[in-house]
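Can anyone check this?
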Amino acid sequence: MKHLIKTLSLTFIATLALAGILAATANAAATLPSLLPKAGPGEEHILASLTSPKSTFNGSLELITSEKDEGTLEGTSLKLGLLDILFLEYKDALGTKCTGLNDTVAGSILWLGTYHLKDYNAGPTLRVALVILLTPVHFECGSAISAVLSGCVAGALTPENVKTKTLTGALVKKGEDNQIITVLNEENTATELCQLLSVTNGGKTKLSSEETTETITNFHGGTVTNGEVEVMRL
């Protein structure tokens, strides 16, 4: 009898543990970062503008700065979309203008890619990051520098859990990298690296970083009302 009671007790405990795991998994799956209102198949995409007064790039090449940028976001789902950013007045440390191989205006470089909303660990809590996956971009600074940027950059996206007409994506440098280089995957089940890479004059691939604060405004399309959106977990 004692053996039977012990067996039933262990079975009950195991059942509770499994239920806890399933509940935790379901809760994690139900709290993925999203941008509302909804955009996706069968729905009109959500559009927005982004601007920054200045960006600084560090990496395998000299310090490079852009005096301003302007671009657009096109939300195609709750968590991701398309992105383009045109960096203007792009110069190296000597003041030489840097121009993208496919750009026609000296000192301009067009970035294309996708953006994703993903969680990252900020101490004991999860916070939302704006993650940019960059289509490799090739640019030259005079005849001395030929460089290719690729990879990924991530910055904290704020505010969360409040309707707003303005979101801010802050990319912060830390050492040779950005401060946020590890984010959770789309399912919040594992981590993945997000790092900006550069190759200069055919040399080795090296870590790079971008420092800037992107202001995202002018939300419209879809079911956006009064230009307001909300970053929250669903």
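Reply from J.R.: I decoded it. The first strand starts at residue 33 and ends at 36.
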